[in-house]
Amino acid sequence: MTREKCPPYYRYWGKAREAEDHPTILCHLLPFHALDVAAVAAVWWDSSAHLRQSFMHDVDIPAEQYRAWVLFFIALHDLGKIDLRFQLKAAEVWRRLNPIFFAAKLPSRTQSKQYYHGVAGVFWYGYDRTPVDNAPFDQFAEPKSDDGPKLELDWMAAVGGHHGHVVAYNNMTAHMSDFLLKGQAAQQDAIARQALVDDLAALFLSPVGLTADDVPPPVSLMLAGFCCICDWLGSQESFPFCDDNSLTLNDYFQQRVHGEAQQACSPLLERPYQYQGVGVLLPDGKIPRQLQTLVDRLPVKSGLTVVEAPTGSGKTEMALALAWRLLSQGEADSIIFALPTQASANAMFARVEKLASQLFSAPNLVLAHGNASFNKLFTEIKQRPQRQLQGDEEATVQCAEWFHSRKRALLGQIGICTVDQVLVSVLPVKHRFVRQFGIGRSVLIIDEVHAYSTYMYGLLSAVLSAQKAAGGSAILLSATLPEYQRQALAHAWQSTLLPCRDYPLVSWTDSHDNLAFTLPEHDMPPDITLHAEVLPMADMLPNDELIERLLAAAQQGAQVAVICNLVDVAQGLYERLKERLNEQNEIEIQLFHARFTFNDRQVKEQAAIGTFGSEGDRSKGRILVSSQVIEQSIDVDFDWIITQLCPVDLLFQRLGRLHRHQRQYRPAAFSTPHFTVLVPDRSDFGVHGLIYSNSLVMWRTWQRLAALDGEPIRFPAAYRDWIEPIYQQDPTGDEPDWILQAYEKFNEEQYVKTSLAHFILRKAEEEAIPDEDENLRAVTRDGEMSLSIVPFVPLANGQRQLLNGVNYDESPDYLKMEIRITNTVNAPDSWKKYLNAPYDDDGCIWLAGVLCDGQFTGSTVTYNAQTGLKRVQKQ
Questions:
Q1: Which string of DSSP letters, residue by residue, matches 343-382?
Q2: Separation CA 25–CA 851 (nearest Å)
Q3: Most buried of the four, 164, 350, 601, 690, by CB within 10 Å?
Q4: What angle do CA 842, 845, 850 make, to 5 degrees?
């Protein structure tokens, strides 16, 4: 048909390109792009039972009608492009489509540039469908009841937010004049928009007995993410441009559903193997033990599972097996495993990589955190699809190129990430709803759930609430979870957990049923008896006598860890130990903490795991001096642990690295586990109180240790017998005044952090900041922000040489980001008052200094690969 006789929306482009790129087909017509995206949605919807369940679990209408509403509104996601201001962004293409259009005055370039079609589409959908009376916008902006057009505009707001931020229609009243366009162009646009709405309704709604005037059901919070991802998939080059106005909407839609949409969805539709039991995930010859025996007793439906069990008891395999059961029953499509730190995420990624092919035939396995692109294993996995295209079929675990984007990192079959990546889903960050969608379709596993601050707990509660609303599942893992935290997490699921003192314990709820699963006697973890050596020390630092004992133990072949609360303390102790060794002494001493450049930290982390891990060389004694980085999710094993006093849950985490594995050989003097706790020699926690500000918990831990008087600590009973009374929130009356005063200050700080979490969650409804690493750290880890410092040596020509010898300014532009990140070292935020250096555009501080014999010296800091970054204390 001629352009003049075809439906009016055929005169609008949806995607355009320059004439020199393709002189014959300059555009992809708007209705065709709309149907590309709807076709992807249709294929995905029809292929995923869990996706349908997520959208409809609280909705009581026929499934085919809900599907029709989803496809109808997703096809309208670009309705705002039917506006002259948008069309003039590719003015030549628009003129070719509208050769007979005349207008006395076209919108200005500024008007065109400032026009945002996503938000505008929400406005136009309501405005065009409102009777043209006085102030028509007010009539649909605030409907009198829920049976008015409010619900349909909620749907439009969700699909209209596909460029990063969902704006509720009732927030547009103050900006009505920004949308309105008068004259012939406005009239033509309105006619075309209404025609498209009518014809899409005929295509999707009419076959199931609906019209566009019917009231849709409540909108799912999953819709914004689903539409956005379908838009990305439907915008790939595999969907060819088409400007053939002789094609009907139905013919075009059917072609795409049976063609390009199938291919586009394939990376997301990998189905799991049928569940074959937790034993499949265990090393050859191993049988399920302890917690792992409970997997098959748990309900196979969406809900919240809280797992409390000792470190080393098999929680990881238990959680993966439970997730596998849920996947194989269509209760989820993927798995997301979140951990507290990058180091623990890297370690878990390596573990899961060995198991992933047991769950899926060709899973896309993704690592998601700020430095994931520098993980060697992840880099190798990302290259596998290319090698397979070249005929090398060696690997089944892969990461297809489509998942390499940070926004899509949680959309693979298995995602390993830091908890920040999960928290972002409820924060004011662009495209947060994409992460929210990825989480909602997954079994969300969060390890070390006790390890987060009050602020982060506020965000985590919002994540769990959203997961429940999406009909999803969550599995929370901890060895040391106080009852009040346990119930707070359940409250986010609109439920409570059965109170139970048994340990280990697996609790489950779906807000209707509350179940508790305990181990039979024969599956209980073996009782472990530990004798604590409690030593009062000045500043909780080892004295000379303890250092001599430490060195003697290593000489006898013992693997010893000294765990410090602060990096500065760990650095100082490391240097003291090195000074005590003469040239003939062969004792190996390692230092591990977070204040190294990325390159050096990778070396330190791998050295610690390689030496003290399950496959480590134990032919001679060694010493590891570490900060708290060793206490979470890193698989290392020691004969003797010396630790500074810390809260009881973290103390038990540290002790979980003691005799962690069965060994054929340990030095005779350490055939039973040894641990020593250094406590204050006076009534003051000093700088340690800055790290652990809950003075009441610190004091109670100290008093409980002091009261042992030679009696052992018995595990696993101690997890309940110690943690519950120590974490009791109200003072008991026997605390000294200095503890009560500090505890009052602590509670005030927690109130502020809780309020801040609530405030920033509300901001998520109003604005969206760019999805960048600096922003993510700023909104997910209140009070834990660190400075990013790039030490460099100024060259004579004004260029900068980094610590690894690379001239940054002469490096290729495409490598500069990687070079900068791998040469960056993090420092406490409090250090900024000592640093006289500006921030660059990426939020990094470039710090000049001199380099001599591997030692960098700046005006206020020093750095070397052995001890890391240190602040110079002025005399």
A1: HHHHHHHHHHHTTHHHHBSS-BEEEESTTGGG-HHHHHHH
A2: 59
A3: 601
A4: 135
Look at residue 834 and give its three-state secondary structure.
coil
Backbone torsions φ then ψ of 526, nearest 5 degrees? -65, 145
Residue identified by tokens 């400075």 is 787
* Type and span of the H or E element at 844: strand 844-852
**Helix residue ranges, H only, 613-683:** 648-655
**CB neighbours of 764 closer than 8 A, spacing ≥ 6?**
426, 427, 428, 429, 432
Instruction: Name the 3-class secondary structure at 507.
Output: strand
Contact (Cβ atoms closer than 8 angstroms) between residue 479 and residue 371: no
Rg (CA), the chain: 30
- At 709-768, the pLDDT tens digits run 889 999 999 999 999 999 998 898 899 999 999 999 999 988 888 888 888 777 766 666
Domains located in the chain, CATH noted: 8-267 (1.10.3210.30), 292-363+405-523 (3.40.50.300), 528-715 (3.40.50.300), 785-871 (no CATH)
Q: What is the residue type of 560?
A: V
Average pLDDT in the chain: 86
> Parallel, antiparallel, or unpaired for β 532-537 and 674-680?
parallel
- CA dihedral over 479, 481, 487, 492, signed as positive or negative: negative
CA distance 807 to 791: 12
Rounded Cα gap, residues 122 and 158, in angstroms: 9
Q: Identify whether the C-beta of residue 848 lies closer than 8 Å to the C-beta of residue 856.
A: no
What are the tens digits of pLDDT across the range 438-448? 999 999 999 98
DSSP class per residue in 405-464: SGGGTT-SSEEEEEHHHHHGGGSSBTTHHHHHHHHHTEEEEESSGGG--HHHHHHHHHHH
DSSP state of 851: E
Contacts for 628 with CB less than 8 Å, ≥ 6 apart: 563, 565, 646, 650
The position carrying tokens 């489950």 is 508
> Span 632-644, mean pLDDT?
87
